[in-house]
Amino acid sequence: MLLPLVSLAVLHITCGQTTGRCGIGGGTSKIVGGHTVAVDQYPWFVALVQSGEFSRAQAGSNSPLTVFCGATLITARHAVSAAHCFATFRAQGGNWKKRLVGVFGLSNRCTPTWKASSTFSNVIIHPQYNGNTVKNDISLIHLAKDMSSFTPVCFPPAGTTRHSGEVTIIGYGTTKENTNKSPCSMMEATVMEYTRKDCLATNVASQIRNLPGVVCAGLKNGSADSCQGDSGGPLMYQTRGVYVFEGIVSFGNGCARRNNPGVYTMVSYYRNWVTSRLNNMRVITAG
């Protein structure tokens, strides 16, 4: 059961040439170990699907949509995801970017119901992405359509370091390890972000020791975590009533295992890489 929404203050911010609002969402319920959540609570979430499947849904098919990854809207024309979400498609060659669609307001993927969609004019995968070490696991999507009717997430301000405390993860990924069954609706869970020192004391230490620009999050008892299909989606924290984009779902050892936090690409670490590729558009920051 969803808990009542809390009232959130609207944050109006001027950042460069951009005036608007960001990170306005809702939800207080506490994805493995999570609960379903109304998709309107996180309007910046973008469900990534294959265009052939989406075309069938547009034609009236009731076949479920497979959300292979998530992404996060940061301007009206740009979204951020994980690099590994696109590695397989890029390897297939051809005009692979045209075979993908971003779906907004996907309230039900099993009997597909959504508000808007956009193809991609470009997908920029970090040039130093390494699929073996998962280093630089970040990508920038250029949307073919203007999505200004959807509120973007707040981007971390310049000079921001890692957050500590509660963070939220959302997505349509599987709710148990080693299963292909995904929920019909978006799920959310609240977990804790680890300090670098604490993460190096967990079972993922050997995987992150030489990885700059990552954060760890989870619950020590393993009761909540991101899982297969959640990749590319956001890790967020709240400040002054708005959500700030902290991380991108990258990898983990299984799902919700004790002493195995999820690993997330740290958005603030890649701030310059992202903002220098926005074609003169600006992100909106919280503060």
TrEMBL record:
One of its GO terms (molecular function) is serine-type endopeptidase activity. This is Transmembrane protease serine 11B. The keyword Hydrolase applies. Residues 31-279 form the Peptidase S1 domain. Keywords: Disulfide bond, Hydrolase, Membrane, Protease, Serine protease, Signal, Transmembrane. Coiled coil: none annotated. Belongs to the peptidase S1 family. CLIP subfamily. The lineage of its organism: Eukaryota, Metazoa, Ecdysozoa, Arthropoda, Hexapoda. Transmembrane segments: none annotated. Pfam families: Trypsin. Residues 1-16 form the signal peptide. GO terms for cellular component: extracellular space. InterPro entries: Peptidase_S1_PA, Peptidase_S1_PA_chymotrypsin, Peptidase_S1A, Serine_Proteases_S1, Trypsin_dom, TRYPSIN_HIS, TRYPSIN_SER. GO terms for biological process: proteolysis.
